[in-house]
TrEMBL record:
One of its GO terms (molecular function) is hydrolase activity, acting on carbon-nitrogen (but not peptide) bonds, in linear amides. It comes from Solihabitans fulvus. Keywords: Hydrolase. InterPro entries: Amidohydro_3 (IPR013108), D-aminoacylase_insert_dom_sf (IPR023100), Metal-dep_hydrolase_composite (IPR011059), Metal_Hydrolase (IPR032466), Metallo-dep_Hydrolases_sf (IPR050378). This is Amidohydrolase family protein. Residues 45-471 form the Amidohydrolase domain. Gene3D superfamilies: D-aminoacylase. Domain 3 (3.30.1490.130), Metal-dependent hydrolases (3.20.20.140), Urease, subunit C, domain 1 (2.30.40.10). NCBIfam families: PRK09061.1. Transmembrane segments: none annotated.
Length: 491
């Protein structure tokens, strides 16, 4: 299959090229980038005049494990969607299930720290599904510290998952915030020895919980410095809240001292999780300066009225998905904090995309457009388009080359060591994977809202995954399921 993208503004963050050119794709690979390329025989020509052509977005933090959810992400410019913060277990089943169902986008998973701990500490057998993962998050049985034997046992499980192709270790530390900090150091040592990154939802900040065993963001910097591990700080905006200035300062000092710490953020003031998560306890919400009314149940739209109601919901169905409003996007000061996380040097854009659920309990659909009534977080459909609108067009904080560097190039580089095949992603050099997005720079924007979260973004005119068109002329190609696994290859 050959495709010639003719006359677009081509941006390659790998080489710094930014100019009008043609891009030739042959058999899933970029084979030429130059002006005035002749179309080979049997080649599809796409007119890209007036459009921006760049490497597809690499999302390091997507909990979408379905065709329906990945189609929303495709309309947002994503070509590779990876679940690295939480991961799935068993890793072999996760990859097999995705391959059997087919995926529009490339996919991959980390080794799940939470699932390994839950198996050893609570006897919960994992089944590599998002529903199982959400149920585990609300179960307190695995959230205690481990004995020496237990620690060795679940570290062995994680190590086995790395050998099976996991893309690093996903650490949901914020869901077990009272655990011994020595366990986190042990995970970092394992990661350093295996040559894989960690992806951490950090525990509470000391400003929120003075009794925390370790300050969340200081802890990740210390672990990186002590072990030499490559450590990724997930959604720094949501875990830092009003303390983002202090947190970013600590991370900047760590990086300047040589620690391998990377950072991600998304452009929303509300997160999404299971209602049983430890940090949604009414007392912990109060410590954050929040209240039960900051919690909205995803499946019903209920805004929780008081602490008694929240406790009831947490006990009745701890795995039920909900939204937590941690910043007020209508407040200029809070909006500035979101902006600050995104402009932080080398901050990566990552969505934390959530599954799509329908009222009948289903969490996938092969229909397009999606059936009505689907619920998720709007970041599933809109993270990248919303970021481009705000950061490039409205505030001009980023140029287009900088946008592709943060959405495509930098996230792919996080994976270079663990997955050598990632080196062909995030750029448009000859030999790069033909994962390409073509954007209308004047029209790209999100349309999903908290109340209509499955409305797809607009402005992505074409999207190619391995050279196969998944979005054409601004809409999904319903027959396209070209996604391939990205697997780890630890040393």
């Amino acid at each position: 299959m050959r495709t010639l993208l003719r006359g677009g503004r081509v941006i390659d963050p790998g080489t710094g090229f930014d100019g009008i050119a043609d891009v030739l794709v042959s058999d899933g690979v970029v084979t030429a980038v130059a002006s005035g390329l002749a179309a080979p025989p049997d080649c599809t020509v796409v007119d890209a005049a007036g459009l921006v052509v760049g490497p597809g977005f690499v999302d390091l933090h997507s909990h979408v494990h379905s065709i329906a959810g990945q189609r929303l992400q495709a309309m947002d410019g994503v070509t590779t969607a990876l679940d690295l913060e939480a991961g799935l277990m068993p890793i072999a089943q996760a990859y097999a299930d995705a391959a059997a169902a087919g995926r529009p986008l490339h996919y991959g998973f980390s080794a799940s720290w939470a699932a390994a701990r839950a198996q050893v500490l609570a006897g919960i057998e994992p089944d590599a599904s998002i529903a199982s993962g959400l149920a585990v998050l609300g179960n307190p049985a695995w959230q205690r510290s481990s004995s020496a034997r237990e620690l060795a046992d679940w570290l062995s499980l994680v190590d086995g998952e790395l050998a099976g192709g996991a893309l690093g270790i996903g650490v949901l530390l914020g869901y077990a915030p009272a655990t011994d900090p020595g366990e986190f150091l042990a995970v970092a040592r394992l990661a350093a020895e295996a040559g894989v990154p960690t992806f951490t939802h950090v525990r509470e900040l000391v400003e929120v919980d003075p009794a925390t065993p370790a300050d969340g963001s200081e802890e990740i910097a210390i672990a990186a410095a002590e072990t030499g591990a490559a450590m990724h700080h997930c959604h720094v905006n949501s875990t830092s809240g009003h303390h983002v200035d202090r947190v970013l300062g600590a991370l900047d000092r760590a990086r300047r001292s040589g620690s391998r710490v990377t950072v991600e953020a998304y452009p929303y003031g509300a997160g999404s999780t299971a209602v049983g998560a430890s940090f949604l306890d009414p007392d912990r919400l109060r410590m954050k300066g929040l209240s039960p009314s900051s919690v909205v149940m995803l499946e019903t739209g209920e805004r929780v009225g008081d602490a008694a109601r929240l406790r009831y919901l947490r006990a009745a169905d701890p795995g039920a998905p909900c939204i937590l409003e941690f910043l007020d996007e209508e407040n200029p000061c809070d909006l500035a904090m979101l902006h600050q996380a995104l402009v932080f040097p080398d901050a990566i854009v990552a969505s934390d995309a959530m599954p799509v659920f329908w009222p009948d309990g289903s969490n996938d659909s092969t229909e397009w457009p999606l059936p009505p009534g689907g619920m998720t977080h709007p970041r599933t459909a809109g993270t990248f388009s919303r970021t481009l609108r705000r950061m490039v067009r409205e505030t001009e904080a980023w140029t287009w080359p900088e946008a592709f560097r943060r959405c495509s190039y930098l996230p792919a580089r996080v994976l270079d060591e663990v997955a050598p095949r990632a080196r062909a992603k995030g750029h448009l050099g000859v030999g790069a994977d033909a994962d390409i997005v073509v954007i209308d720079p004047d029209a790209v924007t999100d349309t999903a809202t908290y109340f209509e979260p499955t409305r797809p973004s607009v402005g992505v005119r074409h999207l190619f995954v391995g050279g196969v068109p998944v979005v054409s002329a601004g809409d999904i190609r319903a027959d396209a399921l070209p996604g391939k696994p990205l697997r780890g290859e630890p040393r």
